[in-house]
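Collaborator request, handled under Task 6.
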Amino acid sequence: MMASEKRLPYDLMTPAVQQCPYPAYDWLVREAPVYRDDGIGMVLLTGYAAMREVLRDPATYSNDIDWMALRPGGVPAASRALIAAEGFHEHPTLSRLDDPLHRQKRALVDKVFAASRIRKMGDEVDRIAHRLIDAFAGDGGCEFVSAFAVPLPCIIIASQIGVPEEDINLFRHWSDAIMARIGNMLSDEEDLAATRVTVEAQLYLKAIIDRRRADPRDDIISDLIREPLEDDRLLDDAEIIALLSEILVGGNETTTSAIASGMRILIEQDGLAARLRADPDAMRNFVEEVLRLETPIQGLYRICTRDVVLDGVALAKGTAINVRWAAANRDPAVFACPAEIDLNRRNAGAHMTFGSGIHHCLGAALARLEMTASFRALVDRLDDIAYPADFAGPQYLPSFLQRSIELLPITFIPCDVYKGEWSRRDLTSPPLTTEHR
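Structure tokens returned to the collaborator:
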């Protein structure tokens, strides 16, 4: 069967649609869950069942695809020249690798995100959340993204990588540039500017790598320097930089987006914060519903390694697929009333936000920990959270891949029950169900 002849009445490459892509996703899931978008030059995959099939078959649907090459016109020549002259070759990240190299490189970083290690971080994440709230709780309002959503995951990932906390603003600057480049919405001039920032990040990381070679520590950079792959080859600097860049972006950009989106939902859903305050056990489902409804990374890419028929649609070898998690997360065949937040949803943890199979997000447990600790602290210490009267509503950064609120001013009444100690429940429990993974 050929791809659907129906034409999507939305353009996912326009900022207006990216501001609220959900009508487009509803159309795709309903009318053409495997849709060949000639304007974008790839297939959009939005149906949950077909997505499970793709994610569980990496031999047929490979990750070995250059995301930047999918940019209309490819990577600008000036950006390529700058990387070649001043930076480091941009090796594929884990998200773009297939086994066996994916398995080998992932093994080098998996222990940093092991469940046992994450559980031990709970008290420290609590302290960071409350320390950040301390800084603005008495003001009656703040710009939430910069005051809380950005610094919390940045501080945590900085400690995991082994770099100074005072550099977290640089982390955000760098990860914004990296995400903007793969978001495929930049002009050639904007891409060159973002590439300059990317090179700045590379050189910063290279300097730390050099210091760790001379003076190893108990941190991930030192591990990456000294741990060999299966063939006893050590990673070169460019490979280490690529891995650290992925951890840097995945460790702060996506969690920042999820925390900001969760705050927006708390404000816009009357009584939700009070319910979570009264019933802390509902927090687990709240976190899963935020991840499902406002998926921070809307989707990533695969490429067909052979001719295949997917959900009745014939795809030729070499076909690029955008696996659109955010649409599958609202598939009504899996999630009842998919556009609504449901704190009693039985399969809340079945969303695709963290992917599935061998490429399941290595930072999923840490993201859940950070979100759960954040929202427990926020609902306990802030009451009557609202937008300022003159605020027109959240605006999202233009991006084909990312869903990220630019600014989120809030007002509140402090209800400061925090006494310096925190009776912490298990913040790293698995989602209520993983049966769909």
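The cover message to the collaborator said: "The radius of gyration is 21 Å. Strands lie at 34-37, 42-45, 61-62, 141-143, 300-304, 308-310, 313-315, 320-323, 382-386, 409-414. Please let us know whether this matches your experimental observations."
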